[in-house]
């Protein structure tokens, strides 16, 4: 982490108990964050909805601020759990939220909505994003990783 100028967070510290696995996990997270074609706002929307479905206060503490920084407003962030009734989401945002529920809760997949908004490559990015953050939420829970000091959960 020092090599990239970042202090480790509690997730990094927990995964560092298996050093051979830490770097690949961080590489995947980095690629999802900086190398994806899908907008950061849509990816953060996916992550936050997955975090809610997984009851991951840790992920929400880290990603709600990132979602706000990426352009999601307080109305949208406050309406995530009731997004189907809320009028503040665009068609691509609705497609992402529906897909998050497919990945995280087994809801039916809306292929028409996905195809209307995202290319096959972008759908793959969303799939890897959602699946990665489901896995991370479960790792956080299994390893009893506490929310980092200074963040609220």
TrEMBL record:
One Pfam family here: CMD
Please give the superkingdom of this protein's source.
Bacteria
- Stretches assigned to the Carboxymuconolactone decarboxylase-like domain: 19-101
TM stretches of this protein: none
Q: Which GO terms describe its molecular function?
A: peroxiredoxin activity
Which PANTHER family does this entry report, sorted A to Z?
A: 4-CARBOXYMUCONOLACTONE DECARBOXYLASE FAMILY PROTEIN (AFU_ORTHOLOGUE AFUA_6G11590)
Q: Report the protein name in the record.
A: Carboxymuconolactone decarboxylase-like domain-containing protein
Q: Which organism is it from?
A: Glycomyces algeriensis
């Amino acid at each position: 982490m020092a090599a990239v100028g970042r202090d480790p967070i509690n997730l990094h510290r927990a995964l560092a108990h298996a050093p051979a696995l830490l770097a690949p996990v961080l590489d995947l997270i980095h690629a999802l964050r900086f190398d994806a074609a899908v907008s950061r706002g849509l990816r953060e929307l996916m992550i936050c909805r997955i975090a809610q479905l997984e009851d991951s206060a840790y992920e929400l503490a880290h990603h709600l601020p990132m979602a706000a920084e990426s352009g999601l407003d307080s109305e949208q962030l406050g309406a995530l759990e009731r997004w189907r009734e809320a009028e503040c989401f665009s068609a691509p945002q609705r497609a992402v939220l529906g897909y998050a529920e497919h990945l995280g809760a087994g809801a039916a997949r809306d292929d028409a909505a996905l195809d209307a908004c995202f290319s096959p490559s972008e759908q793959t990015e969303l799939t890897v994003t959602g699946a990665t953050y489901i896995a991370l939420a479960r790792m956080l829970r299994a390893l009893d990783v506490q929310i980092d000091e200074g963040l609220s959960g």
